[in-house]
Amino acid sequence: MSEENGALFSDELPEDHRSGFVAVLGKPNVGKSTLMNAYLGQKIAIVSPKPQTTRNRLLGILTLARERGELADAQVIFVDTPGIHRPLHKLGEYMVETAVRAIPEADLVLFIVDVSSLPDDEDRKIAGILRQYGGLPVLLVLNKADLLPPGEVTGNVDAYRDLGDFDDWMLISALHGENRERLLEMIVERLPLGPRFYPEEQITDQQLRFMAAELVREQVMYHLRQELPYSVAVVVDQFKERTADLTYISANIFVERDTQKAIVLGRGGEMVKRIGRDARHQIEDLLGTRVYLELWVKVRKRWRKSEQELRRLGYSLPPRKG
Ligand SMILES: Nc1nc2c(ncn2[C@@H]2O[C@H](COP(=O)(O)OP(=O)(O)OP(=O)(O)O)[C@@H](O)[C@H]2O)c(=O)[nH]1
Ligand SMILES: [Mg+2]
Questions:
Q1: Which residue is closest in CA terms to ligand 1's atom 2?
Q2: How many helices (H) does the chain have, and how many strands (E)?
Q3: Is the pLDDT of residue 160 over 50?
Q4: What mean pLDDT comes out for the span 218-224?
Q5: Fold assignment, 18-190
Q6: pLDDT by residue (tens digit) across 237-248?
């Protein structure tokens, strides 16, 4: 293998090898991260029943090879994005901008919708944004088909198909697997011929310490009610391999107000203990070592509204290219 312009070339790749970036877009909570994780067979992105779970652009790199019995020789680079919504603060603006910026860098867009309910203004807004990128192929992915009552299939499918001029569409269940393989075929067929951009054993571009912080935030999403999880950011500040079988991780859970800090701690520290215990199991699965996890709850007043705080917490965009 030789490395040139960031791409890996190998004499062993067949001439019909395909590769490209597949932006996974849609409003919050429609199943974008669930779909990407399902293709990778691993939790690359955290998932929760609450909207606005994903806050960053995350790559899921799927390398396929016919010699392993897979459907093609290809490298599909999924780009999971935050749900596009009407932002209420600077964090929301960052999330939406992150998602929109993934569009012009993609070879193909998956527009994911929740087919179990009818399109709303957010779906229409996203369809409108996609229309501005004429020439970019878009597949309409009608997810959560398992929740769709049989009598409503045609009505709901047609309502979404009417939102734009899509290359094709597919009814799927990201969670249960229905039509996931067929959708993957449709994706691969539409990718340009090209080399692998990443080594085949690499499945994401994220650092382990970021993934560990996200797994803590995932447990925050599950354990805390209502609006509180949205005020939470998690940053790992120490990540040390103590021995071959033990990793020490210390992370800060930032909230916006003292009252929130009290809730995250819980009576006698019960809540943060529960969050830590569940997150630790997840991080142990990720790292394949035992984990000693220490969590600290801290207040950063109104961090979601402050450009400077967002930067400190890792929510900042690189300058626009060109
Ligand atoms: N029944 C059903 N639930 C699904 C399906 N796909 C995803 N879900 C559920 O929908 C919820 C949201 O899933 P996510 O993958 O976090 O959605 P997302 O689009 O990434 O959401 P954001 O990151 O907030 O934009 C979770 O509770 C998933 O388990 C599906 O095909 N069927
Ligand atoms: Mg997500």
A1: 144
A2: 9, 11
A3: yes
A4: 96
A5: Rossmann fold (3.40.50)
A6: 999 999 999 999
Mean pLDDT of 268-289: 97
Nearest ligand for residue 27 CA: 1
- The two three-digit tokens of residue 241, written as one number: 């391999």
Q: pTM for the complete prediction?
A: 0.95
Instruction: Enumerate the domain spans of the chain.
Output: 18-190, 208-312
The three-state secondary structure class of 35 is helix
Amino acid 134: pLDDT: 87
Is pLDDT above 50 for 156?
yes
Q: Is 200 exposed, middle or buried (0-12, 13-18, 19+ CB in 10 A)?
A: middle
CATH H superfamily, domain 208-312:
K homology (KH) domain (3.30.300.20)
Q: Which ligand is nearest to the CA of 31?
A: 1
- Ligand 1, pocket residues at CB < 6 Å: 26, 28-34, 47-49, 51-54, 82-83, 143-144, 146-147, 173-175
Q: What is the average pLDDT across 138-144?
A: 98
Residue of 29, 33, 37 to test ligand 1 pocket, by largest number of atoms within 8 Å of CB: 29
Chain centroid to Cα 304, Å, comes to: 20
